[in-house]
Model the fold of this input.
Amino acid sequence: MRRVTLAAALVMAAGSAVAQDYPARPITIVVPAAAGGPTDTISRVTAQSMSKLLGQQIVIENVGGAGGTIGTARVVRAAPDGYTLLIYHVGLSTAATLYRQLPYDTKAAFAPIGLITDAPMTIIARSDFEPNTLKELIPYLQGRSAKTTIGNAGVGSAAHLCGMLFMSETKLQLTTVPYRGTAPVMNDLVGKQIDMSCDQATNTTGPILGKQVKAYAVTTRARLKSLPDLPTADEAGLKGFELAVWHGLFAPKGTPPAIVQKLSTALKAALQDPELVQRFSSISTDPMTQDRATPEVAERTLASEIDRWAPIIKAAGQYAD
Ligand code: ASP
Done:
């Protein structure tokens, strides 16, 4: 009994010594999507504020492909020492069902640090796409759906999930085009090489305001302050169509609790940094509230979202493999 107590005390002391020195060198945050896209932007803004607070450089490494699972696997395999972290979103929870042979068990692979934001999605098209409203879009697509291309960031991405919900809701089967992230999707949409996409407003607000793409709806319950003329999907005719993309910061399982705690404190403070608040607002999203930016809520969200999407994906019979 005494031995156990002593051992526990030693582990705690070692843990707090590690945490005291942490971070002693630059931290890498893996973003499993292309540079310049929405997850990347959210990650860079968050990392910038956290870096100021931690007094250490944070490097973003973009590892896109396979709906985020390649970059995620890289973090799962990394040393659990607080120097390799992941920022990703709802795609972590959908991939758990979409990919039947993932090299990790999503529910058990992480020491979650906290949620960052719930990003709205927008349903968009190239600027010269004929329909001007969602009401015009749906009949227009009937009979043309196979010819209509919709870009996403691979099976398991938020854009894929949004497109899948749109198609099941409208009973249309569009031709999906996978990319390594939605930054290249946006390039091709602006260049009119593809017809449609559904992407986080964090990536689409600028091009919508600049009329480089056409927007049909936002997937949140309320309209966005930054795009007040854009109707919600529900208002525009897709009743009950709602999707907000939660993003979170995760460390690999086994990361010392004292380091998780330090990162969690830095994340919560970063989400109150006026610079971050202003940047998030300019890309149509809000920082997560302090009570939800915690390791416990991130852990619960990941598990409950895996359980929430599993039956929907199984019913759709859509697998990545
Ligand atoms: N928006 C992408 C997605 O659909 C990811 C990205 O490029 O940030 O998941």
Summary: Confidence is low (pLDDT under 50) at residues 1-11.
